[in-house]
Design a protein that fits this description.
Chains A, B: Belongs to the Casparian strip membrane proteins (CASP) family. Chains A, B: This is CASP-like protein. Chains A, B: InterPro entries: CASP_dom, CASPL-5. The structure is a homodimer of 152-residue chains. Chain A is an all-alpha fold and 152 residues long. Chain A has four helices and no strands. In chain A, helix 3 runs antiparallel to helix 4. The longest helix of chain A is centred in the middle third of the chain and has 34 residues. Chain A is elongated, with a radius of gyration of 17 Å. At the A-B interface, helix 3 and helix 4 of A face helix 3 and helix 4 of B.
Chain lengths: 152, 152
């Protein structure tokens, strides 16, 4: 079978997973080091989702690293299907969290009252941007694996 | 080639496209019949995206209807690839718009001041729900077509 770059068990996939872990951790840290995040539903949602994405991406990064080092890629359709579904669900949830956060931050910035001290608002914006990057890498992983799936 | 239900040129695909057109039109109408939608970025974004989704889904519904009636499905990889990419981009944008709208409505409802008269807020909520349904059908179309793509 030809190797698809970015699919499970390749170096590209390992980089994608590592990027997801880094960006989602950054998003979580920027959000939760601010003090007021629990007063907005969207921010709590982002923290929850990032708490799901980090272990998922980290585990798959370990699996990819192992396959690359041991040179024996994991090619079982059942496992790949689970990974594709998990990736797809998590990427949808990440996108939803990123968009919600971004729109709430935008509303807080442009609302009449000064709800949002600039220090916090910058953090929220960076957190939303990191979540978008994490979503981008996660959906790339998902697409590469979907592409591989019918050929198994 | 075996027929995949939901892929381009089947009755299921026609139903999906019709559903997308109906839900996105409903979302657009509920949002734009309210008066204040242009004062929030997220709502303007929803209206813009729905204005893109409606013609796309309607055109593809016509194509599907034609293929079903004429019994000659369109099976060219290039065209299918364009449709898959378009579907994917639009479903991502629809999800983003739906989440932004939902989170802004949630914030408006629970913010201290009474920003949002109940009559408008209900409309916004229905509009966000319709956008979510439209996203769901759109991503279903996209997945079915992605599934068909490697077999062409």
């Amino acid at each position: 079978m030809d190797e698809i770059p970015g699919s499970l068990g390749t170096t590209a996939s390992f980089s994608l997973r590592l990027g997801q872990t880094i960006f989602s951790s950054a998003s979580l840290l920027f959000m939760s080091l601010g003090v007021q995040f629990y007063s907005y539903t969207a921010f709590c949602y982002l923290v929850t989702i990032m708490g799901l994405v980090i272990p998922w991406s980290f585990t798959l990064a370990l699996v990819d690293g192992y396959s690359v080092l041991a040179k024996c890629p994991l090619r079982q359709p059942g496992i790949l299907l689970i990974i594709v579904i998990g990736d797809w669900v998590l990427s949808v949830l990440t996108l939803a969290a990123a968009c919600s956060t971004a729109s709430v931050v935008d509303l807080l910035l442009h609302a009449n009252g000064a709800y949002c001290p600039p220090k916090f608002c910058n953090r929220y914006q960076i957190s939303a941007a990191m979540a978008f990057l994490s979503w981008f890498l996660s959906s790339a992983s998902c697409l590469f694996n979907i592409w591989l799936l019918p050929s198994l």
